[in-house]
């Protein structure tokens, strides 16, 4: 008489090993995805900042040529060419056009001296002048700095000095 072997499935140990392996793969994928999302946010912010700076620089040239047409990057700019006016208009434009991907509760852009003794916050574009009462020139720069990692601080080596 023939006997049949009744072990036609997986043992409990084999199932536990498979579930453990799947769990490890899921955790690894989740961590990798988190790094991917953060690097994408940083890359997007850098691209936005480059495009925004180009638009503001074009608006500075327009103001210096006494033109009245400005981009959405500088709303309300009157064209008198003072650095402070450009900085405030750029802050308004950035807050209107973009969002802070790093921390929704932080603004997109802020005028540097309004920070007083505080450091910038993550994801904020800090816009300020060397001398706000003068026209923008090679010695009086309109500066754009952004913090991608905490702790955020002013860094003269990376062209983000505190001038006030």
Describe the structure.
The chain has 2 helices and 3 strands, in the order ααβββ. 41% of the residues lie in helices and 8% in strands. The relative contact order is 0.11. With 164 residues, the chain is mostly helical. Strands 1-2-3 form a 3-stranded mixed sheet, with helices on one face. The protein starts with 11 loop residues before the first helix and ends in an 18-residue tail after the last strand. The protein has one domain (13-158). The protein has helices spanning 12-64, 83-97, and strands at 109-111, 125-129, 142-146.
How would you sum up this structure in a few lines?
This protein has 164 residues and is mostly helical. The chain has helices at residues 12-64, 83-97, and strands at 109-111, 125-129, 142-146.
């Amino acid at each position: 008489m023939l006997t049949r072997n009744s072990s036609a499935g997986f043992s409990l140990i084999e199932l536990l090993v498979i579930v453990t392996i799947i769990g490890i793969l899921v955790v690894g994928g989740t961590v990798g995805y988190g790094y991917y999302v953060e690097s994408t946010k940083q890359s997007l912010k850098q691209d936005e900042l480059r495009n925004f700076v180009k638009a503001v620089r074009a608006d500075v040239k327009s103001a210096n040529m006494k033109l009245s047409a400005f981009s959405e990057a500088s709303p309300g700019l009157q064209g008198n060419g003072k650095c402070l006016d450009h900085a405030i208009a750029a802050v308004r434009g950035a807050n209107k056009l973009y969002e802070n991907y790093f921390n929704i509760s932080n603004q997109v852009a802020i005028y540097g001296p309004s920070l007083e003794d505080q450091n910038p916050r993550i994801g904020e574009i800090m816009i300020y002048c060397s001398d706000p009462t003068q026209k923008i020139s090679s010695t009086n720069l309109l500066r754009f700095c952004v913090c991608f990692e905490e702790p955020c601080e002013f860094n003269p080596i990376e062209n983000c000095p505190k001038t006030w």
